[in-house]
Design brief:
Order of helices and strands: EHEHEEEHEEEEHEEHEHEHH
Oligomer: single chain
Distance between the termini: 13 Å
Largest sheet: 6 strands, mixed
Helix content: 25-40%
CATH superfamily of the largest domain: HAD superfamily/HAD-like
CATH topology of the largest domain: Rossmann fold
Shape: globular
Number of helices: 8
CATH architecture of the largest domain: 3-Layer(aba) Sandwich
């Protein structure tokens, strides 16, 4: 087996427990990988704030890939290495739809989420300083946003038909009864951002281990030399990838790192 040089990790439903915590088995597995010279990168749909904090906490040194691949950030220097915003015309049209139909929308612009004041707060982390309440979206129609998030089942249901007619990339995600849809530029994908990052660091795809759980992760899992689906991944993702680890509650990331990166490297060294 070709030794792994880089591990690409999705966050929600993959590395993180339900309370946004990284469990001890995953912490130890990442620590062991780093000690052996294997690099670790987060590839997530989240904005830059939380992944940056977590990367520092775990001692990572690679840039983070966030906003579903639309933003690549060197969190150590604060430099933006890659940014693919939603085309301004398409963003304006979708913002107008949200206003006209009274949809719950969050706009990620200049690394802040903007939402209308007084709207429902769906998640406990939707607070300042990285969530900004605005009275209207008019000013945000003047600059191309990194990502649009339609929040809640009603908003997702209404906007779904609108998205089919526009050249953007939509990612639908569901947690229990809650559904949301993230909209990025069509060119902004986890796979492309990871490929660019690996090219910058001269890491061939054959030496990449990628782990994820959703349909949005599937192209990245197929691109990597070793792609592993979480046990809690959607059935179509598990079937398409083939390699499946345990679910997130049973520390599937730690198991996959041990099996495909650490154990294989240990056998090669021996």
């Amino acid at each position: 087996m070709v030794p792994i040089e880089l591990i690409a990790l999705d966050l929600d439903g993959t590395l993180l427990q339900a309370d946004d915590r990284v469990a001890e088995p995953e912490r130890k597995a990442i620590e062991r990988a780093l000690a052996r010279g294997v690099r670790v990168v987060f590839v997530t749909g989240r904005g830059a704030e939380f992944p940056s904090l977590l990367a520092r906490e775990l001692g990572l040194d690679l840039p983070i890939i966030c906003c579903h691949g639309a933003l690549t950030k060197d969190f150590l220097s604060g430099r933006t290495l890659g940014h693919i915003p939603v085309p301004l015309e398409q963003a304006r049209d979708l913002i107008d739809v949200a206003v006209e139909r009274d949809l719950d929308l969050a706009i990620y612009h200049e690394e802040r989420f903007h939402r209308l004041a007084g709207r429902e707060r769906y998640m406990p982390d939707m607070v300042a300083p990285h969530w900004v309440e605005v009275e209207d979206f008019r000013l945000l129609r003047e600059g191309a946003p990194t990502m649009l998030r339609f929040l809640g089942n009603r908003s997702v249901e209404i906007v779904r038909a609108e998205l089919a007619r526009r050249p953007v990339h939509a990612k639908f995600e569901r947690w229990g009864d809650f559904e949301e849809c993230a909209v990025t530029a069509r060119e902004a994908t986890k796979e492309r951002a990871l490929a660019r990052l690996c090219g910058d660091f001269q890491i061939p795809r054959e030496r990449v281990l990628a782990i994820g759980d959703s349909a949005n992760d599937l192209p990245m899992l197929r691109w990597a030399g070793i792609g592993v689906a979480m046990g809690n991944a959607e059935p179509a993702v598990r079937e398409s990838v083939g390699r499946v680890t345990l679910d997130v509650a049973h520390h599937g990331v730690a198991r996959a790192i041990e099996r495909y990166a650490l154990a294989a490297q240990g056998r090669r060294s021996a």
